[in-house]
Amino acid sequence: MVPIDPIRIVLVGTQHPGNIGSAARAMKTMGLNHLVLVAPRRFPDPEANALAAGAEDIVQQARVVASLDEALQGCRFALGTTARDRAISLPEHTPREAAAALLEHTADGGQAALLFGRERTGLENDELMRCHGRVFIPCNPDYASLNLASAVQVLSYEIRLRRLELGQLPAKAPLMAEAEPASIDQLERLFAHLGEFMDEIDFHKGRSPDMINQRLRRLFLRARMDEREIKIIRGLLSDAQRLLRQVK
Ligand code: SAH
Predict the structure, then answer these.
(1) CA distances from 8 to 41, 58, 108, 164, 243 (A)
(2) What is the pLDDT of residues 14-60, one digit of tens each?
(3) Using a 6 Å cutoff on CB, does residue 111 contact ligand 1?
């Protein structure tokens, strides 16, 4: 079991269950798993599971509570996301600053919350007042309201970036195990082998090999080959030579 994340995503009064599923999916892609739903209008609902698309575990684990106070229990720090300015004055954060603050406040084992409002009306003033700050995703001033799950995605991504920066997540495993870069003498042996092969197939036909050799060198040096790649090319040349010698 993956431990529950110290940063909880709190969706307040969500109207469409599909948005809960999409938010869960957005969270899971970024490695978050702690979802709290305050008085969702329709939940549980098949639409939430349908849109979770592989993140149903996050939906199923979601804690449903009746009030924001319950959702914030145990948290030391909370930020509220808003699509527009409100009358109340609160420190304003960019998503990047918000991620840094959330991680800072959970660094010593504490818990923190990030709040998202209703699709139509957002967070109420008294809900925002419980927060230490608000977060605004910079966007087109003429159309500043993102879909709820899109807003969750942006913030979750920033949290992931910050965790990567802090070295809290394992870096992505390379697709193939890296081989050592080839040394100059390995490359020289490859060029010699190639020269031998070209002679055997009479590639130059009496012309000077210099220009071709220079170009081939340039090509192979540009490729910054590793040891394994050199082995593959030399294996290929050796096999071709073996077959040639059989026909000759
Ligand atoms: N008309 C509502 C929009 C709500 S959109 C309003 O004015 O608040 C649903 C939720 O998505 C918002 O409550 C907020 O949590 C989040 N959201 C949408 N756009 C956002 C933005 N530009 N910055 C931060 N949060 C945003």
Answers:
(1) 20, 12, 16, 18, 65
(2) 999 999 999 999 999 999 999 999 999 999 999 999 999 999 999 99
(3) no
